[in-house]
Specification:
The structure is a homohexamer. Chain A is mostly helical. Chain A is built from six helices and no strands. The model of chain A is unreliable at 120-129 (pLDDT under 50).
Chain lengths: 131, 131, 131, 131, 131, 131
């Protein structure tokens, strides 16, 4: 199953990258500007990248978007957020959002486990147009 | 993968049709009336079908329901909405609903690509009880 | 009560305008760009302004945001959407979003009544940074 | 303040009734049918009215609609749901929906207190077109 | 396909159980307490388990969480809720939540069909930490 | 108007405190435990209080709960979050949640302005049972 999972992670990453390219190839300025703005949002400013990624993670969890959660978990890992810190971020999202968040928490922890096992390192989305 | 995808589209369409039949076979008048009302909602009136389908699409995107998005994209194509127009509808939904809409946008564009490639024509839901 | 209501509409419009100015006076480029993008989104393109405003209205109704609904109802009136057409837009939102939309529908119709009675013409938001 | 509150409850009830009449006076069959269906939904069937109202209450709480919550609390009281039972319904909604439900819980308990004090008995919505 | 489906149900159940164990093995007291509270919520009190499970089901449907819906459908079956009663619960959720609930209704009925066919009995979540 | 506003802030704070007491006076253990857990969630752990409050703020903004936003803005101010940092938190929430967040952003900035003007210092919720 582990091989199967790796394939699904790789397939998902390839899908995200391919579709982002399809979307940005379209001549729609509003969509392109939104994607650029999304990237700009998480750059260091008055708050550092780590704090911004943790906020993006919490927002994604209470809105219950698995792809967004996986993206921010990967970004958090890249900037040094520890597993213990991630679980505290999960706990805030769980209490704010309620038990309806639990299925997404399970998938988030599964993704984190894979990341830590080095199985899913390739799945970290590129910094541009990440969501 | 293209063959695999076609299968998944066909499988999804078959699932939708089969389950709609299961649901309507049940002796529950509220559910049946809701399905009938849902169908009636998108008929031409003061507003034409195209405008109503675009509104249904926008509502489905900000509520982030992939099945509903796919259904309305297919309906929009059937009544002549162009790819450029669909992207403008996507852009409204993206700005209203935020980056949390992006994963659904990716799947919507993928579905649209398949529709345009003629791979998914069979997946257009029947006009009755569509969602 | 009619005088009281007019005051509340005027107060709300003044509040919106004053706070938009406060927000844009802040040195935060992401927020400013988002507001500019929001304005750009509803400009005529492949789809006309009327269709885009109707989509914005439907999205606002199913997401249940009274201020956004009032804004788009006012914009729709300005570009010639009739009461009958607005009710069809309401009906799509009601069926997609469910009975939870009804309290917002009541307030939308109340706002529309005031607009048509000429009581609330001043409340039409300025075209820039409208939401 | 108690007099002020009674007025607000009465004002709200009058507003709901007046706007429901305005909405149903409009020649839009989808909207009218939806309102009729909404009424039909809570009639006794395989499940009794009490259970259905408690389900409507839970759904309204996790979707965070104050007007809908107030309506279902009043309906629950009318069919004999006790304060203890209402708090158990609140507790389910709180755990499913998270701390974001708390502000609505406060307003629900305030409304319930008023109902029990006999201050708000007139605010119980009529059984037709209630939400 | 039936064999394939049984596998997917078994796989899902195994995943849920494995991830719940992973989550509770973590030294995060807030998360652990939330899971314990979630279990406590559905115990019989002033309201019986059946009513509480039906409320949990309605809340899950309008919030559109397939895993939560499946869990509560299974729990409802275990405490004797009939198919007719479940469809009435579905109808309340459909009217409150709108057509956006329909795709989840299809998957709920499919899951119910499997449960009734005895194919998915093993998928009933254990009473502890269920969501 | 400033006097009027101060009164409304004071009235709101009094309402929150009074209703929290009413709720906790009720003999419902699940509700009480949820309130206690909510308080525990924001205590310093692997992440400091500032980061947790910023996450709570982002989650509240994308879920569009004015009371929760006001509460977390006040808490953020108490632990030293600057106006510039708060606007970066707002910008993340705006991009994740979309233009539907704008009306809440306006009210958040208005509340922040009042806090900074010293008008609303009394409105900072007590650390216990805050939401």
């Amino acid at each position: 199953m582990s091989a199967d999972k790796k394939d699904r992670v790789a397939e998902f990453t390839a899908f995200r990258q391919r579709m982002n390219e399809r979307i940005l190839a379209e001549d729609n300025q509003v969509v392109r500007r939104f994607f650029a703005l999304d990237t700009q949002t998480y750059r260091a400013g008055a708050l550092d990248v780590k704090t911004k990624e943790l906020m993006g993670l919490s927002a994604s969890m209470v809105l219950r978007c698995d792809d967004c959660i996986a993206y921010h978990v990967a970004q958090c890992k890249q900037v040094g957020v520890t597993r213990e810190e991630l679980f505290e971020a999960f706990s805030v999202s769980l209490v704010v959002g309620g038990s309806i968040v639990i299925p997404h928490l399970r998938r988030a922890v599964d993704f984190l486990d894979q990341l830590e096992a080095g199985e899913a390192t390739a799945s970290a989305a590129p910094p541009e147009h990440g969501h």
